[in-house]
What does this fold into?
Amino acid sequence: MRAVAPSTESTVFQPEEPTRPHASYTVKPGDSLSKIAMRLSRQGVPGGWRNILGKLIELNPEVSDPDLIRAGATIRVPPAPRPARASQPRTEPWRGEPEPPRVRSAGGAANSPALAAGSLAAMDPKRLSRTQLVPASGFFREDGRPFPVSKDGAPRYAQADAEWANVSMGNAGRSLARSGCALTSVAMALSKLSGETITPSRLDAHLDSAGGYSGNAIVWGKAGEVTASPFLVQKSTVWNIQSVDAELLAGRPVVIGVDYKKGASGGNSGTDHWLCLTRKERQGTDDVYFANDPRDGSEVRLKKDQEGKLVEDTILTRGRDAYRTSGEQVTFLPA
It folds into this structure.
């Protein structure tokens, strides 16, 4: 059930007259009725996404084939409820609210308006502050079950998840379970930034169709085109902890290469594995960095060494050498 033609229109759910029992939605490329139902469920429409899907079909009797919806068309959708001012921020806001919801900064004060992830493309990325990026209320599987989410709002995907473990990457025949740590890390970063559920399998399908592989290596610039509002995805081999800190301060994850095997053949930089670095916290006298590990979907902690590299807390490692950044990093800016 995918949209079949391009559209340049905004894809914000918009309420109609207060007396109308539905809202309107402009279909975007790649949409399906089930995806729209899941998005509405995340926005608080009651009944579960399967019931919402049935309601969508009921509200749009002119849709003769629910497996084929046209991008750019306007359909009727059940309205998402307006939460109280103190409720969690939404990633796809209603138009016409008196003011956007407020979120708490790292210090705990509610002192900066939250902005929808879809509006980032219109902003200067240098001006994005930590509180301007709003994590989605949740990320969901096709069957409606939620993925675990880190404290900062990034989903925690595992590359060996049964939903995509056996998916082959590119034309090299390697599976996501075996070689998908970089792709899974990028999927986590793009999910957090966009508010969309960009699973590794969805990102892989996009890369397949967009020429986004060289063998089984990612063509980084293609990855950011998977989201409704694209991102500029860039890889660097010049490590700069100040630049990494600036990205995290702006609320943007950084995908980092790490070395943990002696004598590993991880390319020129010695990268054995990739992590999705999501935030930095001050704990006592230490700066602690947190990353989602696609190896098993867990969260790992790293600290800065004397060389400015990040090294995993050795206390938390399990039967292997501690992760240490190799110098490779991938950043994400609104395109």
About this structure: The chain is about 20% helix and 25% strand. The CA atoms of residues 286 and 299 lie 18 Å apart. The mean pLDDT is 77. The helical segments are 33-42, 48-59, 176-179, 181-194, 200-210, 220-223, 241-249.
